[in-house]
Structures are given as structure tokens and as C-alpha cells.
Amino acid sequence: MADQVLVKKLARKLLLDWANLPNPPDGDNLKWIRLRHPDVFSFIANDDEGLKRLVERVGYCLRQAWKDSDPLRRDWFLFTARQEYMYGMLGTLPAVTRDGRRGWDVARKLILGVPPRTAFDVAVFYAQSRLAHKMRYCQNKDCNTRYFLQRKKNQKYCSVKCTEPTLLRSKRDWWNAHRGKGASPKDHNENQSI
User: Fold this and answer.
1) Which end of the chain is more exposed for a tag (fewer CB within 10 A), N or C?
2) At 29, is the pLDDT very low, low, confident or very high (cuts 50, 70, 90)?
3) 10 Å Cβ neighbour count for 149?
4) Residue 132 burial by CB count (10 A; 0-12/13-18/19+): exposed, middle or buried?
């Protein structure tokens, strides 16, 4: 049970951190995510260009999954994120291994079989099986963390702060339409949902 709680927390943290990175990420963003999730990036720790490429490719797939409301397409993008991560791992294999085998022979065995379980793979599998229906994209254009996990049904914004511009616009529109006609803004707000 404790393992499942840990997986849940780490999966949420990793996927939200990765999806909300700026695109393309700068050096500070790459350093931040590498330090925050060392187990996920240990295989590519000394290759800044490889890390940038991996973060961009996987990040693209994660953001597409978050934005898409079709479950089949969302699942495809999450699978593709897992695949891109595995390709990133394969790209770090040497041309010839220490025991004399060619790197491609090792890679082919990994591709044709089930790849080794990684922290990233476990996190994305958790997202595919447990979080996909909660993945949302904040409707506030000025939001810095647009990718979030829904806490309430029909939630369109990541936080109360992000709902404020829409609520103010709604109140202003109501006031302009009903100014002095006997109805109160409170009646209107009771019909609004966040």
C-alpha cells in the first residue's frame, strides 16, 4: 500500500513538472528537472544536448496527451511518451558493449521485448491507468502551469486565481446587460461553475 502511495505522488509530481516546463526548455529548466528527478534522468546525466532532446520530445507527447480529450488519442500520446523515453535510453548505448556485443544487438532485444521498468515508465503507466481522465489544460491564457489534474468535476482552471479574470468578465457582462433591472449579481453567480 505504501508503495502505491509513493508511486502516485511521484507520478503526479514528475508528469506535472515535465508537462509544465517551458518549450523549449533552457539550461536552468533542464538542471532543475534533472535535480528534482535524478532517478529518471540518471542515464543521461552528463549529456546536456541529449537531455534537452529527450525533455522536448517526451514533453511534447505529454502536453498533447494533456490537451486531448479523446481517451484513445490521449492513451496514444502517453504511450508515445514512454516510447520516446525508451529511445532516449537506447541512444545512450555504446556502439560496442563491454562484453563485445554490438550496441544495436542489445537495443534490438530491448525493442522487441518488454523494456526494463523505469521510474518514468511506471509514472506514465500510472497516468494511463489512473490519471488520464483527470488530465486538464488550464483555460487561462496567462497561466504559468497550464497542465493540471482535475480535482472537481467540470473544472476548467487549475486554481481559483486562474478563474478570477473569467469571473470578473462574467460579472461585468452581467452588470452591463442587467444594470438597474431588479436582478442581483448573486443570482447570476449561483448558476456559474468553476
Assistant:
1) N
2) very high
3) 16
4) middle
